[in-house]
Design goal:
- GO terms for molecular function: 3'-5' exonuclease activity; nucleic acid binding; nucleotide binding; ribonuclease D activity.
- The radius of gyration is 24 Å and the shape is globular.
- It is an alpha/beta fold.
- It has a 6-stranded mixed sheet, with helices on both faces.
- It contains 15 helices and 6 strands.
- It has 3 domains: about 190 residues, Ribonuclease H-like superfamily/Ribonuclease H (Nucleotidyltransferase, domain 5), CATH 3.30.420; about 90 residues, DNA polymerase, domain 1; about 70 residues, no CATH class.
Length: about 375
């Protein structure tokens, strides 16, 4: 292994300093970016630090001290290519915190999936494998909201962007040689658009045991899940601190009409009933009146033979196309998308590609979906 003296670490906590830096960075071609946040007792991640590397230094932006973030928002929205690693949570945090998403952007974890045929490599492993530099992981779960940060925290945060640009340069060369660079940039853009266009009203699909309920019960579950989502957002509390999946499912199944009927339901403590019963009971009553035509479709049991066979066929079709392209199967469709297609197949409907899906994989995915037998009679 090799080691380097490292780039300077510069703490940024003055608005004038940030504005000058952002104006300077607008002339760069590429910038490394990362964030540190806490999300243990809240619905939304709480931003604590924003790191930027420009190849000459690593800048640690103290977002707890800075008050004018407009220059940073502008930098994120236009200008240089923003290089992140495994950025799905960063994107979600930025969208909520600043109301902007990085444009243009590339994800080095995604790039490594194409270039190295490994879709899940972490930052430390990539730095070690491609640059020969060993990084410690010791501060992963630090309290990033404390001030001052420890020297170990500052070093860890700076290293998260210090090697991102060299890493991207190495991956970019390989992607250019392999002909995958445009696909990586397109796929990264799709990641951004997914965050920007997250669908509302689908929160009930998070509940993995929803297949146990009938269509009428699912209508109640859908209303309860929407209530939980809105309550968690409004009060900034984790979903399960508002109501667990198990409790929502029990409420949808038992359909209680008064607080006493909630007693004995799993995870319905006396404190929870006292706090939420008067909110939840009217929701259950109203959802129970929804007309049958508006009920959600029932879900097929994942334990059934039909489900297992169809899932196997879908995965096999995707695997065949991934092998043709010589890319990891995960890059063709994420689990959430595969689940949506699987539901369509189980309902004997031909799955469709989402609007605006990355062009590089539209053809092979359409071929995979067309190969699956669907009885639409």
């Amino acid at each position: 292994m090799t080691s380097t003296p490292g780039l300077p670490h510069i703490w940024v906590d003055q608005d004038t300093q940030l504005a000058e830096l952002c104006e300077h960075w607008q002339t760069a071609d590429e910038l490394a970016m990362d964030t540190e946040f806490i999300r243990t007792d809240t619905f939304f991640p709480r931003p604590a630090l924003f790191q930027i590397g420009d190849g000459a230094a690593c800048y640690l932006l103290d977002v707890l001290a800075l008050t004018n973030l407009e220059p940073l928002k502008k930098l994120l929205s236009v200008g240089p290519l923003k290089v992140f690693h495994s950025c799905s949570e960063d994107l979600e945090m930025l969208n909520h915190w600043l109301g902007v998403l990085p444009q243009p952007m590339v994800d080095t974890q995604l790039a490594a999936g194409f270039a190295l045929k490994d879709a899940g490599k972490g930052y430390q492993r990539l730095v070690e494998d491609l640059l020969g530099i060993h990084l410690e992981k010791g501060e992963t779960r630090s309290d990033w909201l404390q001030r001052p940060l420890t020297p170990a925290q500052e070093k860890y945060a700076a290293q998260d962007v210090e090697y991102l640009l060299p890493l991207w340069q190495e991956l970019k060369k390989r992607l250019q040689d392999q002909g995958w660079l445009d696909a990586v940039l397109e796929e990264s853009q799709w990641q951004v658009s997914e965050v920007a266009t997250q669908e509302s009203g689908q929160s009930w699909l998070r509940l993995k045991q929803a297949w146990q309920l009938d269509a009428r019960q699912l209508a109640i579950l859908q209303a309860l899940a929407d209530w939980r989502e809105e309550t968690a957002r409004t009060r900034d509390r984790p979903r399960n601190r508002v109501a667990s999946d198990v409790l929502l499912q029990a409420l949808a199944s038992k359909e209680p009409s008064h607080p006493a009927a909630m007693t004995g339901l799993p995870e319905a403590s006396p404190g929870w009933i006292k706090r939420y019963a008067q909110e939840v009971l009217p929701i259950i009553a109203e959802a129970g009146k929804i007309e049958e035509a508006a009920w959600p479709e029932t879900r097929i049991s994942p334990l059934s033979r039909e489900y297992k066979q169809t899932r196997k066929q879908l995965r096999q079709a995707l695997a065949e196309q991934a092998e043709k392209l010589d890319v990891p199967q995960e890059l063709l469709a994420r689990r959430k998308q595969q689940d949506a297609w699987l539901h369509e197949l189980l309902k004997e409907r031909k799955p469709e590609l989402p609007a605006g899906y990355p062009a590089w994989k539209q053809g092979v995915l359409q071929e995979a979906l067309n190969s699956l037998k669907v009885d639409e009679s």
